[in-house]
Amino acid sequence: MTSARPRVPIRVDGDAVQQRVTDIFNALAGAQITEITLTDLLGLQAPS
Questions:
Q1: Cα–Cα distance list, 32 to 17, 38, 48 (Å)
Q2: pLDDT score for 25
Q3: In which region does residue 43 sit, left (phi positive, over 0), alpha (psi from -120 to 50) or beta (all else)?
């Protein structure tokens, strides 16, 4: 069995409503997922 924590990549569309992004963060926190990676609109991965 592995103890690796899930890492969730998130790419937010420029037209997304800020509240929806907050909802995603809250849902992840509720599932105790704290490792996320944000990617920009050009598809380049931000440093984690």
A1: 23, 17, 18
A2: 94
A3: left
